[in-house]
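In this supplementary section we document a worked example of the pipeline. Step one takes a protein sequence of length 190 as its only input; no multiple sequence alignment statistics are reported here. Step two produces a three-dimensional model, which step three serialises into structure tokens for compact storage. The input and output of this example are shown verbatim.
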Amino acid sequence: MSFLHRTAALPALAGLALAFAAAPAAAADYVQAPGSALTFASQYQGEVFVGRFPDFRTTFSFDPAALDSARLDVVIPLGTASTRNPERDETLLGSDFFFASKFPEARFQATRFRALDDGRYAADGTLSLRGISKPVTLTFEWTPGAAPVLTGKATVPRLAFDVGGGDWSDVSDLPNAVAVSTRVVFSPAK
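The serialised model returned by step three reads:
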């Protein structure tokens, strides 16, 4: 290539480099890895109890520099709920609470993400539970690395989803607010 041809090609190469630099960053895609946990906590007549959903599944697209393209999807098989108390678990799975036979899964999907002042993030999404969909916000910390980790918390108003209505709607015995916590270990999606 002559000097004239090389210098004529430089503006085209510079334009191509600028186009790539101006393109929006793409979020990395992740799937849930072993070592993850999803728990809920409440109390009944002053006694605190904690439950787990051992079989939940999470997919996540996330890059702190590209929050507009972030996506979170959590599928929760309700029939796997366990508080390590067989009587309470039977009640939770029944029609007064999760009604797992009719509504086998809950799902949280978030497509709006915000950076918070303290280095955490907020995922504004929709929780679908018992055939009812309502907005819920998950606040979380993100630890990047070879096996990145999302550590988050949300508060779910159980009565908004008809969980524990009727005889169980007395919030002095069973509070409306249920604390949900998660620690999800990720690996890159293939």
